[in-house]
């Protein structure tokens, strides 16, 4: 009754569980490397479906207008719909699967807990314990996802020069990264950029750091800072 009363949430729960399943079979290719590539695409398509359903839930009345598009781009679900479209037809990249795997796992765990509560407060205590441990590590998981989002930017450039990516992919991914940096709901991308900058500046200011390395890093930091969008 609980699942039928919340059909859209239940559909997203099932698609997230399917994303976790396909992602796991890509990361751990138990069925062979050829099958792993197909699971990579299935995971991204399932994530695209989840993101589209979530976006519909957040913005139910679609309008073909600039204002609606601007509002949609503020939603995290729209960001990951774009993310799925960026990588779904590209060469499989293991780094790109972790954000959708972990986001799907976290959201599926939250809804699974609601399903268990509907069954009874003492149902499946072992599963409840696993979900509580996952929830306790949520902050670390979100930081790991943000780290993946950041380091995928140079990875797309490397893929371009190695012949495994398209010319447009780095530019479209840069747009995705600026959306994540400006996210209202998830500040972890901004936080990670700040933390990485502090760590790099601390290391290059040590006397043992060569001067040319220091200059290169400072120039890179300045360049990346100019590319960062303004956050209200």
Automatic annotation (TrEMBL):
It comes from the Eukaryota. It is found in: Membrane. The keyword Transmembrane applies. The keyword Acetylation does not apply. One of its GO terms (biological process) is membrane organization. Keywords: Membrane, Transmembrane, Transmembrane helix. The chain crosses the membrane at residues 12-33, 80-106, 150-174. It is a multi-pass membrane protein. This is TMM33 protein. The lineage of its organism: Eukaryota, Metazoa, Chordata, Craniata, Vertebrata. The gene is Tmem33.
């Amino acid at each position: 009754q609980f699942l039928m009363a919340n059909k859209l949430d239940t559909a997203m729960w099932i698609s997230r569980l399917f994303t976790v399943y396909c992602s796991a079979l890509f990361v751990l290719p138990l069925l062979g490397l050829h099958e792993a590539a197909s699971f990579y695409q299935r995971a991204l398509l399932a994530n695209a479906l989840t993101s589209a359903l979530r976006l519909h839930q957040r913005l139910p009345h679609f309008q073909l207008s600039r204002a609606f598009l601007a509002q949609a781009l503020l939603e995290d679900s729209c960001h990951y719909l774009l993310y799925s479209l960026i990588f779904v037809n590209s060469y499989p990249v293991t780094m790109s699967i972790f954000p959708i795997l972990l986001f799907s796992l976290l959201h599926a765990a939250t809804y699974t807990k609601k399903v268990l509560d509907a069954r009874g407060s003492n149902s499946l205590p072992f599963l409840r314990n696993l979900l509580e441990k996952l929830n306790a590590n949520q902050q670390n998981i979100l930081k790991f996802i943000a780290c993946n989002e950041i380091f995928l930017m140079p990875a797309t450039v490397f893929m371009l020069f190695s012949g495994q990516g398209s010319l447009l992919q780095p530019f479209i991914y840069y747009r995705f990264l600026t959306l994540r940096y400006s996210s209202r709901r998830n500040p972890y991308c901004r936080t990670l950029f700040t933390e990485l900058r502090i760590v790099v500046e601390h290391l290059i200011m040590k006397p043992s750091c060569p001067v040319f390395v220091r200059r290169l890093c400072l120039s890179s930091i300045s360049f990346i800072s100019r590319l960062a969008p303004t956050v209200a």
